[in-house]
Design brief:
Layout (H helix, E strand, L loop, with lengths): L4 E5 L11 E8 L3 H7 L8 E4 L5 E2 L4 E8 L4 E6 L3 E7 L4 H10 L2 E2 L13 H5 L2 E2 L2 E2 L4 E8 L5 E5 H4 L16 E12 L10 H7 L7 H15 L7 E5 L5 E2 L1 H10 L5 E3 L5 E3 L1 H7 L6 E2 L2 E3 L6 E4 L5 H19 L8 E2 L1
Parallel strand pairs: 2-5, 3-5, 4-21
Antiparallel strand pairs: 1-2, 6-7, 7-13, 8-13, 9-10, 11-12, 11-13, 14-20, 15-17, 16-17, 18-19, 19-20
Helix pairs in contact: 5-6
Amino acid sequence: MLEVKSNYNLKALNTFGLDCIANYFVEINQLEQLTELKNLPIYNLEKLILGGGSNILFTKNFEGLVIKNSLRGISLVQEDDQAVIVEANAGENWHEFVMWCIEKNYCGLENLSLIPGCVGASPMQNIGAYGVEIKDVFYELTAWNLISGEFKKFSLDECKFGYRESVFKRELKNQFLITSVKFKLTKNASTNTTYGAINSELEKMGISSPSIKDVSDAVTAIRTSKLPNPKEIGNAGSFFKNPEIENERYNVLKIKFPNIVAYPLDNGNVKLAAGWLIEHCGLKGFEHEGAAVHSKQALVLINKNNSTGKSIFNLSTYVMQKVFDTFGVNLEREVNII
């Protein structure tokens, strides 16, 4: 039986730890409950799908229906000598799912260790870290149409993945609830350690021929050293996307800022490190009404001292303006603003 709760506080369900009252709240643990929910009068209200709450900033109460996606379960769908297809339901904790795959020696997700959130959000955001994105290991997903009540499968092409983008954040926004995701992972594959500080972390660990567990441990160590634990201090991980600019603009910036951090892209453009831009503006540790730019990683905004969602949003606006004034570069928020 589906339980409907009214005037429900979402503070424990968002990693910023912000008070937000939802007019109505339901938690979905079984697929059958979706049909039950669709037959209720409150289903006609504005809806918000909530997973791990790790990529959302509440700036006000939600005067509608919040649906908490808690569908759990992991299964092996297909296997041969070279690869496997694994299906995880959308409510599974992402890092726990990555650890499950590593224990089975299924390769491909190790660089994405310790990313907060649930499996269902991974294709929505096309989450990525240390040279790997979801699109690199994605096979297929199943989603429930919030309007028709029918299930639909989405292929890699149909998801239209981009940098922290998918069809679910653009033309199909708020139209589907992702129920499960399938990943194609390999067996005994070579590890990807070329991006960021993974190699240097492995050297510190005294490892020259790393396993996928070693890579996962290295990524976890790096993330732990730079990023605050949401259970200890409210945050949503990286708040801004790394901006992409044309190579010509980059060359101009490089003359003025010789130490600017950037990465060449296959399309000829350049991706700038948003954290470096923010830090160079002198904003590391900057505070505003209980919100702050994290002192160790400028890409992260934190709820340092009982801040509000509006104050965190205003801080992000200030950061964006300072970066534009200094570099002429527009930052874009990665976090979903409510």
